[in-house]
Specification:
Elements: H1 10-35, H2 45-71, H3 75-84, H4 87-111, H5 118-147
Length: 150
């Protein structure tokens, strides 16, 4: 029987998923803004951006806590992870989630001083999607690791 050739492997999907989702949603948010189907609340811009800043802070705190939990894995689980060669991917995923959360905070801070333009709304939407997708990815993996029996 011939082996099926996959265009995208599971690992590639896992690695690129948050980036692709963020790009697609940023484009979608831009198009929705342009068409007038999705308009960010310009009248309550400060409240909206303050909420995004708080969300980014909560995400960052969650990722810092998760990082601490992952670094306190028992020796047997850590050795298995290291032997699998997946530890570098896991650290990169954690870094993506932390940087995505911090980027959300930074963009919200900068956006306080900019007018709501469609490009800014698209950027905010893309960063929010990236942060959430990165957190879901690392939380899913961390849950499996932390629930693994010694």
């Amino acid at each position: 029987m011939a082996a099926k050739t996959r265009i995208v492997t599971d690992l590639q999907r896992e690695q690129w998923g948050p980036w692709v989702l963020a790009a697609l949603w940023a484009i979608a948010f831009g198009l929705f803004q342009w068409k007038g189907w999705f308009v960010l609340p310009a009248s309550s811009k400060d409240a909206y951006l303050g909420a995004l800043l708080s969300l980014g802070g909560v995400f960052t705190g969650f990722m810092a806590t998760l990082k601490t939990l992952l670094f306190s894995l028992n020796d047997k689980t850590y050795r298995r992870l290291k032997a699998s060669g997946y530890d570098r991917d896991l650290l990169r995923y954690l870094a993506d989630a932390l940087w995505g959360s911090m980027a959300l905070c930074a963009i919200a801070l900068v956006a306080f001083h900019l007018p709501f333009a469609s490009w800014l709304c698209a950027l905010i939407g893309g960063v929010v999607v990236f942060a959430i997708a990165s957190i879901i990815r690392i939380a899913h993996i961390a849950t499996k690791l932390l629930s693994a029996r010694s």
